[in-house]
Structures are given as C-alpha cells and as structure tokens.
Input
Amino acid sequence: MKCGIVVFPGSNCDHDCYHILKHILNQETHWLWHKEEANLESFDLVVLPGGFSYGDYLRPGAIASFSPIMNSVITFAKAGGKVLGICNGFQVLLESELLPGTLIQNQSRKFICKNVTVRIENPDTPFTQNCGENRILEIPVAHHQGSYYIDPFSLNQLEENGQILFRYCDTKGKVSAESNPNGSVGSVAGVTNEQKNVMGMMPHPERCADPQLTGIDGQIIFQSLISNS
Amino acid sequence: MLAQIHVTFKDGVLDPQGKTVHNALNDLGYDEVLDVNIGKYLEIKLDSASEEEAEIRVREMCERLLANTVIESFRFNIVPTE
Output
C-alpha cells in the first residue's frame, strides 16, 4: 500500500503515523508537504495527522483546509482515494467539507488525554473490514475540541447510511452518557462520507499500534486498509 | 472601510464557555442573566470601491472561512474609516 502523510505547520502526530505505516507495517510511505500540490493518483491512502495545524487559529482545521495540498487531497478523495483524518486531521476534513458535521469544545471545557473504548458500528468499510461486528477497541484520545456536532436530522441520516464507524462506549460496549468523554452527539467518535472512502476519527490509532507500547488495537484500522488495497 | 464582524453560535449548539460565564454571573448575584453566548469579533480593514461591493465580499469571506456555518451565524457592519 502506498501511503502519504500530510505535514501541516503544527502537525505533531505525523511522525507517529509514518513510523507505524513504514516501520511497523512495512508499507511504502511518503511525506506530503502542505505548501505543494501533489499528484496523488498512484497513492492508496492519504493520512491527515493530529496536532495543531496553524496553531488552531480561527477554528481547528480551518486554515489548513485551504492549504495547497488540500486541493490535491480533495481531488484524490472525490476520485475515490482513501483518506484517513485523525484528531486535528478529522477537523481538517470537516472544514474541507469532505465529511459532514463539525467538532466543538469538549462539554467539560477540559483537554482530555486518556484511553477510551470505542465500539465498531459498521465493520463493512475499508477502515474497519478486519474488525468484525461489535468489536471494541481501546484507543487513546487527546483533544480539546472533540465534541462531534451535527443537527439531529443529519445525525439520523448518518446512522441510516452506516456512516457512523465508532461510538464511545464502556469496556463492555455499552454506550451511555457516562462513557461519552466529550459530549459528542450520539457518542460519535468517527464518521465516514457517504462513499465510505473518507474517514475521520478523534481517537489516535497510531498511538496504539506499535507492539513496544501497551496495546495494539489501533493496528486493526491500518490492517483493514492494507487488506483493502 | 472597516468591516465589523460578529460570529456567534447558532441556537441549540452547546456553548460550554457561555454556560460557565452564565453560572459565574449568577453566582455574583446577577440573577437577571438568562443566557450567555460567547463568540468572536473581527475587524477587517478593506480597500473596496463601494459599500455594496464590500458587503458582497465580506459575506463571502464569512461563508468561506470566518464562520463555520454548521454551528455559527454571523452578522456585520461596513463603516467608513478616516
């Protein structure tokens, strides 16, 4: 699988993603610099990593969504290319309107940095195909603006189209207000577009994919993408 | 010309900052406070040919970048400078 990792000024999870894809999973991996448009036709996957692109000025992801590389990413996504946005990368995808909805400040107003459990809601996508039904993953979150918001009508549509990929849950898979760390509507932790080739998620799978660290649940998302390519 | 732009949350969108300030004002004894909505205020200096043109361009700026219209609404005034 040929992968590209976008680097914005302020990205800080780019090297983690690069490490997992290149050194742990042995995939061909390239950097994509934000200032340059790129021909992505030969790529199988583009990752928008976490961090604080452009210092989160105005709104997280807002300025990054207009950077030159995003023109290429949008063209790539519209042609069916697979795009994974993690945390700040998710915010960039929402600001680019490649994904529906938006992310607002956590209900608690605090920066949340901890391991959470998420339930796979749709195992029938390129991002989750190796997961199986009702699988629960333990993945870290680290965000201040991670509360997913969309109007109730559109949330219903996401649900009907199988676009909700992950929901925050407890260790047994139960979804409740207590298991929702940030106040996201419907406990949504990750969504796809209608075509299922663009996915954004707040938890960080690249932080739990190296066997030298505790937990490798995040690997399954990258493995799904490799199986799919 | 100067554009004075206000960007605020739409009704129904959770505003944790506004809620906290609301509680703080109530704690200080300002019981008449019913709701607080915290937003952004932007001032943009413009070199536009006319007020009409400025209005069209500023509206576009708000829709494309300055406000996230999923959750925020905006309003603005164009005022002469000097």
The first strand of chain B starts at residue 2 and ends at 9.
